[in-house]
Amino acid sequence: MKPLFTLLFCLFALCPWLSAEKPNVLFIVGDDMGYADVGFHGCKDIPTPNLDALAASGVRFTQGYVTGPYCSPTRAGLLSGRYQTRFGHEFNPGGEESGLPLSEKTIADRLKAAGYETGLVGKWHLGSQPAMQPQQRGFGSFFGFLGGAHDYFSKNGILRGTEQVTEFDHTTDAFGREAATFIEKNQGKPWFLYLAFNAVHTPMQATKERLAKMAAITDPQRRTYAAMMLAMDDSIGVVRAKLAATGQEQNTLVTFISDNGGPTMEGVTVNGSINTPLRGSKRTTLEGGIRVPFLISWPAKLKPAVYEKPVIQLDLTATALIAAGTESPGEGVDLMPYVLGEKTTTPHEALFWRFGDQTAIRFGDYKLVSYDGAAESKPGTLQGPKLYNLATDIGESKDLSAEMPERVKELQAKWDAWNHTNVPPLWGGKEKRGKGMKKKKKGNAEE
User: Is 384 left (phi over 0), alpha (psi -120 to 50) or beta?
Assistant: First the structure.
């Protein structure tokens, strides 16, 4: 017995996570939020006290990105931990047969295999066929809807598992309550919860009580948007209160992102969001489409801090999986050594984007980008490639491509090498990848 005891002692000493309690993991995703529309980014007209408290409790990332400027591709990247262009999920699902390919393991699959209870509350948008639904993709429980958008007050299409619910009030409030119930039910064992709000996606709908609280905002669209933001913040408060009340707050790794930037231009369902100081909108590879509010809180491990180097949502997947003591699919980076100061290098040499003909690469402070001309009131055109120094020009206003042609060639070569490992989209823009900005067929319409 003595050799076995010695072996176990050495294993625990060399691998501290083996002896540590596994953290709970909570991924929270907002939908179509403006970069400027949270208090921790300086918003003044919309109160977000619970999101601000979450930011203050952990690490706020000033250069946090998502891999796509659209809802479903970003979620496919988050749940798989891989660039969605690796497996053809480049656009929103284009019909009943499309969705997250069955070849892809989700973070829920991986954590379930590692002994976690897993649940999804909210928006799925990764396929409606039976084999593609949440409980076939690693989630032990599901409460929400399968599509890309939903009426906030209608029960139709709201499912518990695969069954239609019979009573319902309001999606954002219901999702907060359901998340809190999951947290309470599963205390005492490790769990993973994906809380995917449809707020603040269209349709523009809010409760009368919250609209009254936002009465000082004179623009009616912005007022409704603000009331919808307030609803999401309230629900996040409900969830955080349940973590505290059940004694799980310290050892729960909580992340928060928006799935893409706010929709502010022609061709998207504008919701009243603001992306200042970023330029561009949802559905573009400009900063306004892909740089988002980005938070990690884990009180047992992390002290409050601000992290200023570029990161991407794939890193959240890798960080959570490694914290749970299981393997990461390899595209994201474990952020813990960086935010703890154990590594001082940049997590990524480069970050990449492809969305039809729209492309981008972030390399150091420089970004080479081709983007939808609708961002400049030139719909149907492709602008670029243009080169920007984001350290001095976060608003992407001064094109440096003519001054720095060698840098343009360097970044284009890096993007080409990355793109060589991608695959054609499985739907949407199939006829030619270059048709990515033309009006999509029904089924791949903007949602």
Answer: left
Backbone angles phi, psi at 235, to 5 degrees: -65, -35
Q: What is the DSSP letter of 227?
A: H
Catalytic residue among 41, 89, 125, 201: 125
Q: Is 43 a known active-site residue?
A: no
The two three-digit tokens of residue 321, written as one number: 């999986």
What is the distance, to the nearest Å, from the Cα of residue 272 to the centroid of all Cα atoms in its chain? 20
Amino acid at position 243, single letter = L
Instruction: Tell me, rounded to whole angstroms, the distance of Cα 267 from its chain centroid.
Output: 22
- 446/309 Cα distance (integer angstroms): 31
Q: CA-CA distance, 96 to 210, in Å (whole number)?
A: 36
**pLDDT, tens digit, for every residue of 244-292?**
999 999 999 999 999 999 999 999 999 999 999 999 999 999 999 999 9
Calculate the CA 433 to chain-centre distance: 24
Contact yes or no for 371/359 (Cβ under 8 A) = no
Instruction: Compute the mean pLDDT over every residue in the chain, rounded to the nearest whole number.
Output: 93
Q: Which residues pair with 145 in a beta bridge?
A: 123
Q: Which residues contact 352 (CB under 8 A, 6 or more apart)?
A: 83, 360, 361, 362, 415, 418, 419
DSSP label at residue 135: G
Q: Considering only CA atoms, which of 158, 157, 161, 100 is closest in space to residue 132?
A: 100
Going by the DSSP 8-state scheme, the letter that residue 198 receives in this structure is: -
Q: From the candidates 41, 43, 71, 201, give the one annotated as an active-site residue.
A: 71
pLDDT tens-digit map of 86-115: 999 999 998 878 999 999 999 999 999 999
The answer to whether 89 is a known catalytic residue is: no
* Tokens standing for residue 322: 């490694």
Site of tokens 């961002």: 375
CA dist., res. 87 & res. 77, Å (int): 10
The kind and range of the H/E element at 5 are: helix 2-14
Residue identified by tokens 């003044």 is: 44
Question: Which residue type occupies 445?
Answer: A
The token pair that represents 30 in the structure block? 């907002």
Of 335, 330, 265, nearest in space to 294 by CA: 335
* Kind of pairing between the strands at 191-196 and 252-258: unpaired
* The CA-based dihedral angle spanning residues 225, 155, 124, 247, taken in that order and rounded to the nearest 10 degrees: 80
Please tell me the distance from the alpha carbon of residue 28 to that of residue 47, in angstroms, as a whole number.
Answer: 18
pTM of the model: 0.93
